[in-house]
Specification:
With 230 residues, the chain is mainly alpha-helical. The chain is built from seven helices and no strands. It is 70% helix and 0% strand. It starts with 16 loop residues before the first helix and ends in an 8-residue tail after the last helix.
Protein backbone atom coordinates (compact mmCIF):
# COMPACT_ATOMS: atom_id res chain seq x y z
CA UNK A 1 0.00 0.00 0.00
CA UNK A 2 1.35 3.39 -0.94
CA UNK A 3 1.56 6.00 1.81
CA UNK A 4 -0.21 9.25 1.09
CA UNK A 5 1.22 12.61 2.13
CA UNK A 6 -1.60 14.84 3.24
CA UNK A 7 -0.90 18.55 3.31
CA UNK A 8 -3.32 20.76 5.20
CA UNK A 9 -3.64 24.05 3.37
CA UNK A 10 -5.95 27.05 3.68
CA UNK A 11 -7.91 27.64 0.49
CA UNK A 12 -9.88 30.52 -0.91
CA UNK A 13 -12.99 29.11 -2.63
CA UNK A 14 -13.47 32.28 -4.69
CA UNK A 15 -10.03 32.28 -6.34
CA UNK A 16 -10.06 31.14 -9.97
CA UNK A 17 -13.48 29.62 -9.50
CA UNK A 18 -14.07 29.06 -13.19
CA UNK A 19 -10.73 27.39 -13.79
CA UNK A 20 -10.88 25.20 -10.72
CA UNK A 21 -14.43 23.95 -11.20
CA UNK A 22 -13.42 21.71 -14.07
CA UNK A 23 -10.44 19.97 -12.48
CA UNK A 24 -11.24 20.29 -8.78
CA UNK A 25 -7.92 21.97 -7.98
CA UNK A 26 -7.89 24.58 -5.23
CA UNK A 27 -5.52 27.49 -5.00
CA UNK A 28 -3.82 27.95 -1.62
CA UNK A 29 -4.22 31.29 0.08
CA UNK A 30 -1.10 32.93 1.43
CA UNK A 31 -1.41 33.25 5.19
CA UNK A 32 -1.24 36.81 6.47
CA UNK A 33 1.11 37.33 9.39
CA UNK A 34 1.83 40.49 11.35
CA UNK A 35 5.57 41.11 11.33
CA UNK A 36 7.55 42.05 14.45
CA UNK A 37 7.75 45.83 13.85
CA UNK A 38 3.97 46.01 13.42
CA UNK A 39 3.47 43.92 16.56
CA UNK A 40 5.60 46.44 18.46
CA UNK A 41 3.48 49.28 17.07
CA UNK A 42 0.30 47.56 18.23
CA UNK A 43 1.89 46.86 21.63
CA UNK A 44 2.70 50.57 21.96
CA UNK A 45 -0.96 51.44 21.45
CA UNK A 46 -2.02 48.84 24.03
CA UNK A 47 0.30 50.42 26.63
CA UNK A 48 -1.41 53.82 26.40
CA UNK A 49 -4.42 53.21 28.70
CA UNK A 50 -2.18 51.49 31.25
CA UNK A 51 0.27 54.36 31.78
CA UNK A 52 -2.63 56.84 31.67
CA UNK A 53 -4.27 54.93 34.51
CA UNK A 54 -1.08 55.05 36.60
CA UNK A 55 -0.65 58.80 36.06
CA UNK A 56 -4.22 59.35 37.23
CA UNK A 57 -4.08 57.13 40.34
CA UNK A 58 -4.29 59.38 43.43
CA UNK A 59 -1.79 58.85 46.20
CA UNK A 60 -3.06 56.54 48.93
CA UNK A 61 -1.89 53.98 51.48
CA UNK A 62 -1.18 51.45 48.73
CA UNK A 63 0.21 53.67 45.97
CA UNK A 64 2.79 56.30 46.90
CA UNK A 65 2.83 59.30 44.56
CA UNK A 66 6.55 59.00 43.83
CA UNK A 67 6.35 55.36 42.80
CA UNK A 68 3.21 56.00 40.76
CA UNK A 69 5.06 58.57 38.65
CA UNK A 70 8.16 56.39 38.34
CA UNK A 71 6.14 53.39 37.19
CA UNK A 72 4.13 55.48 34.73
CA UNK A 73 7.37 56.92 33.35
CA UNK A 74 8.79 53.39 33.01
CA UNK A 75 5.77 52.27 30.96
CA UNK A 76 6.08 55.33 28.74
CA UNK A 77 9.80 54.67 28.29
CA UNK A 78 9.02 51.10 27.23
CA UNK A 79 6.53 52.44 24.70
CA UNK A 80 9.13 54.92 23.41
CA UNK A 81 11.69 52.13 23.03
CA UNK A 82 9.24 50.07 20.96
CA UNK A 83 9.01 53.05 18.60
CA UNK A 84 12.79 53.05 18.27
CA UNK A 85 13.16 49.28 17.87
CA UNK A 86 10.33 48.78 15.37
CA UNK A 87 11.93 51.31 13.02
CA UNK A 88 15.38 49.71 13.29
CA UNK A 89 14.04 46.19 12.76
CA UNK A 90 11.80 47.22 9.86
CA UNK A 91 14.65 48.92 7.99
CA UNK A 92 17.33 46.33 8.76
CA UNK A 93 15.27 43.30 7.75
CA UNK A 94 13.27 45.08 5.03
CA UNK A 95 9.97 44.67 6.87
CA UNK A 96 8.65 48.14 6.07
CA UNK A 97 4.93 47.92 5.27
CA UNK A 98 2.14 50.36 4.43
CA UNK A 99 0.52 49.39 7.74
CA UNK A 100 3.69 50.32 9.61
CA UNK A 101 4.20 53.61 7.79
CA UNK A 102 0.61 54.58 8.56
CA UNK A 103 0.16 53.23 12.09
CA UNK A 104 3.59 54.02 13.54
CA UNK A 105 3.03 57.82 13.65
CA UNK A 106 -0.57 57.29 14.77
CA UNK A 107 0.66 55.13 17.67
CA UNK A 108 3.08 57.93 18.59
CA UNK A 109 0.20 60.39 18.66
CA UNK A 110 -1.84 58.13 20.94
CA UNK A 111 1.16 57.87 23.26
CA UNK A 112 1.85 61.60 23.44
CA UNK A 113 -1.71 62.90 23.58
CA UNK A 114 -2.75 60.20 26.06
CA UNK A 115 0.14 61.01 28.39
CA UNK A 116 -0.42 64.78 28.22
CA UNK A 117 -4.16 64.47 28.86
CA UNK A 118 -3.46 62.24 31.88
CA UNK A 119 -0.90 64.75 33.19
CA UNK A 120 -3.40 67.61 32.86
CA UNK A 121 -6.03 65.60 34.75
CA UNK A 122 -3.61 64.22 37.35
CA UNK A 123 -3.63 65.57 40.94
CA UNK A 124 0.19 65.69 41.03
CA UNK A 125 0.84 68.60 38.67
CA UNK A 126 -1.24 71.52 39.92
CA UNK A 127 1.73 73.89 39.67
CA UNK A 128 1.96 73.59 35.88
CA UNK A 129 -1.64 72.74 35.04
CA UNK A 130 -2.48 75.96 33.18
CA UNK A 131 0.63 75.83 30.99
CA UNK A 132 0.13 72.08 30.52
CA UNK A 133 -3.44 72.63 29.33
CA UNK A 134 -2.27 75.17 26.74
CA UNK A 135 0.58 72.95 25.53
CA UNK A 136 -1.69 69.89 25.39
CA UNK A 137 -4.28 71.81 23.37
CA UNK A 138 -1.63 72.85 20.84
CA UNK A 139 -0.36 69.26 20.54
CA UNK A 140 -3.85 67.78 20.25
CA UNK A 141 -5.07 70.10 17.49
CA UNK A 142 -1.77 69.91 15.62
CA UNK A 143 -1.78 66.10 15.63
CA UNK A 144 -5.44 66.00 14.59
CA UNK A 145 -4.84 68.45 11.72
CA UNK A 146 -1.66 66.77 10.46
CA UNK A 147 -3.20 63.29 10.61
CA UNK A 148 -6.15 64.54 8.57
CA UNK A 149 -3.82 66.07 5.97
CA UNK A 150 -1.78 62.86 5.79
CA UNK A 151 -4.93 60.81 5.18
CA UNK A 152 -6.12 63.22 2.48
CA UNK A 153 -2.72 63.11 0.78
CA UNK A 154 -2.68 59.34 1.00
CA UNK A 155 -6.11 59.13 -0.61
CA UNK A 156 -5.12 61.57 -3.34
CA UNK A 157 -1.96 59.87 -4.60
CA UNK A 158 -2.27 56.37 -3.19
CA UNK A 159 0.98 56.57 -1.24
CA UNK A 160 1.25 56.20 2.51
CA UNK A 161 3.15 59.21 3.84
CA UNK A 162 5.56 58.36 6.63
CA UNK A 163 6.89 60.76 9.24
CA UNK A 164 9.71 63.09 8.17
CA UNK A 165 12.78 64.16 10.15
CA UNK A 166 11.11 67.27 11.59
CA UNK A 167 8.22 65.12 12.76
CA UNK A 168 10.58 62.69 14.48
CA UNK A 169 12.45 65.52 16.22
CA UNK A 170 9.10 66.93 17.35
CA UNK A 171 8.18 63.51 18.75
CA UNK A 172 11.51 63.39 20.63
CA UNK A 173 10.81 66.79 22.21
CA UNK A 174 7.38 65.52 23.29
CA UNK A 175 8.83 62.37 24.84
CA UNK A 176 11.47 64.36 26.76
CA UNK A 177 8.81 66.78 27.98
CA UNK A 178 6.49 64.04 29.26
CA UNK A 179 9.27 62.18 31.08
CA UNK A 180 10.57 65.43 32.55
CA UNK A 181 7.17 66.40 33.93
CA UNK A 182 6.73 62.97 35.50
CA UNK A 183 10.20 62.70 37.01
CA UNK A 184 11.42 66.25 37.69
CA UNK A 185 10.00 66.50 41.20
CA UNK A 186 11.18 62.95 41.94
CA UNK A 187 14.72 63.20 40.55
CA UNK A 188 15.90 66.65 39.42
CA UNK A 189 14.38 69.03 41.98
CA UNK A 190 15.46 67.00 44.98
CA UNK A 191 18.97 66.19 43.74
CA UNK A 192 19.85 69.53 42.08
CA UNK A 193 17.82 71.89 44.23
CA UNK A 194 16.37 73.66 41.18
CA UNK A 195 13.14 75.70 41.28
CA UNK A 196 9.98 73.63 41.11
CA UNK A 197 8.94 72.65 37.56
CA UNK A 198 11.79 74.64 35.98
CA UNK A 199 12.73 71.90 33.50
CA UNK A 200 9.08 71.05 32.90
CA UNK A 201 8.41 74.61 31.75
CA UNK A 202 11.51 74.59 29.55
CA UNK A 203 10.71 71.27 27.87
CA UNK A 204 7.05 72.21 27.44
CA UNK A 205 8.12 75.40 25.71
CA UNK A 206 10.46 73.52 23.37
CA UNK A 207 7.79 70.90 22.71
CA UNK A 208 5.18 73.54 21.87
CA UNK A 209 7.50 75.38 19.46
CA UNK A 210 8.52 72.14 17.71
CA UNK A 211 4.89 71.01 17.52
CA UNK A 212 3.79 74.23 15.82
CA UNK A 213 6.81 74.36 13.50
CA UNK A 214 6.53 70.73 12.37
CA UNK A 215 2.82 71.25 11.75
CA UNK A 216 3.63 74.24 9.55
CA UNK A 217 6.16 72.14 7.60
CA UNK A 218 3.60 69.38 7.00
CA UNK A 219 0.90 71.79 5.86
CA UNK A 220 3.29 73.59 3.54
CA UNK A 221 4.37 70.29 1.96
CA UNK A 222 0.90 68.76 1.57
CA UNK A 223 -1.35 71.79 1.11
CA UNK A 224 -1.55 70.98 -2.61
CA UNK A 225 -3.69 67.95 -1.73
CA UNK A 226 -6.36 70.06 -0.01
CA UNK A 227 -9.03 71.29 -2.41
CA UNK A 228 -11.82 73.21 -0.62
CA UNK A 229 -13.99 73.10 -3.76
CA UNK A 230 -14.47 69.32 -3.53
Amino acid sequence: MKSENKEITEYNPDDNNNNNSSNGNKQPVKERKINLPNKLTIFRIILVPFFMAFILIPENDVFHGTWIRIFAAALILIAILTDWFDGIIARKFKLVTDFGRLMDPIADKFLVVGALIAIVASPYFDGIRLFAVCATSVVFFRELAVTSVRLIANTADGNVISANFIGKFKALSQYVCILTILLEDVVLTQSLGTPEYLFSYITMGIMTVMTVYSGFVYFKAYWKYIDPTK
